[in-house]
Amino acid sequence: MSSKIVLNKVSNAFEKGGIYFVLLFLVIALGIIEPSFLSIANIMNVLRISSVRSIIALGVGCILITRGTDLSSGRIVGLTACIAASLMQKPEYAYKMFPNLPQLALIVPFLAVVITGLTIGTVNGLVISTFKIPPFIATLGMMVIVYGISSLYTNAQPIGGLRNDFTGLATGNTVGIPNLILFAAFTMLIIWFLLNKTVFGKYIYAIGGNPAAALVSGINVKMTTIKTYALAGVLYGIAGLLLAARTGGATNNYATMYELDAIAACTIGGVSTSGGIGTASGILTGVLIFEVLNNGLVILGVSAYWQQIIKGIIIIAAIAFDMRKYNSKKS
């Protein structure tokens, strides 16, 4: 076998699975530089933090595949975190948001955040598909609106004193595995199934690949767009509930900048900003790369300001690489 063939095979393998090699390289490198990085406790911490962000990124990823974007995701997560927290405060807590509210079943906040996320996501989809407003502008406006709603709802005051059974959803374990990791894994399996095994998933890829061709072929582009944003909204709502449970509280400023982290993680994970390309496993890997990098920089004592600079460079590089691949395929 010639060296050229070998190089081509290696090149193809790296192109298809490059992000997995990057993740492996980061883990090994950080483990060598700082052995404590590879401790079970630290690895579990990275996976727990990644879990909530993975659920958000999966919603954002589905939208990116349709050539859309969603800048309101972080604020929706923050609002739903506040709603869930306000319904799950301990009866004896002195600063209870709703003093006369009886003790509710855990299903109540779950339904509340799902309905809230579904409603806002549906509105995003309707505005974008009906009025042909660019997703960037529509979701930017929604981001501001949702933050205002969240601030009014909480009166810009933190919500604490959450019930132990509620926080246990995120801090507890099932058969020795942290619940948050199980939630993230289950969500990824659902999104993988939707994208790969359903007509809805095929429509998502078709719209992202060529919206005009999708419309001509009989795909209801408007309804698929609405459904995609609605699905993402549901995922944001669940992420908000889990975030409140993990931290034991919520404020109107929760999940600030999560939307940019999610978009960056998706891009790093192989979701094309040009639409039509992306996988659930790639999105999850992109989130893990980001969190491994964040955790590693903290352990190494890198300044928080330098961390932001490094993350920004990675985002620009990932998108530049994606656009280069897209332009080379067009030519």
**Anisotropy-based shape:** globular
In N-to-C order, the SSE pattern is: HHHHHHEEHHHHHHH
Q: Report the radius of gyration as a whole number of Å.
A: 21 Å
Structural classification: mainly alpha
Tally of DSSP helical segments:
13
Number of E-state strands: 2
The low-confidence runs, each spanning 5 or more residues with pLDDT under 50, are none
Helical content band: over 70%
Rounded mean pLDDT is: 91
Strand content: under 5%
Overall structural domain count: 1
Tell me about the largest β-sheet: 2 strands, antiparallel
Q: Whole-Å distance between the termini? A: 31 Å
Adjacency order of strands in the biggest sheet:
1-2
Describe the structure.
The structure is a single chain. The protein has 331 residues and is mainly alpha-helical. The protein has 13 helices and 2 strands. A two-stranded antiparallel sheet has the order 1-2. Strand 1 and strand 2 form a beta hairpin. Helix 2 crosses helix 11, helix 2 packs across helix 12 and helix 3 packs parallel to helix 5. The longest helix has 31 residues.
Blueprint of the fold:
Layout: H1 3-33, H2 40-65, H3 73-87, H4 107-131, H5 135-154, H6 164-171, E1 173-174, E2 177-178, H7 179-197, H8 199-209, H9 211-216, H10 221-247, H11 258-268, H12 280-299, H13 304-330
Antiparallel strand pairs: 1-2
Helix pairs in contact: 1-12, 2-7, 2-8, 2-10, 2-11, 2-12, 3-4, 3-5, 3-10, 4-5, 4-10, 6-10, 7-8, 8-10, 11-12, 11-13
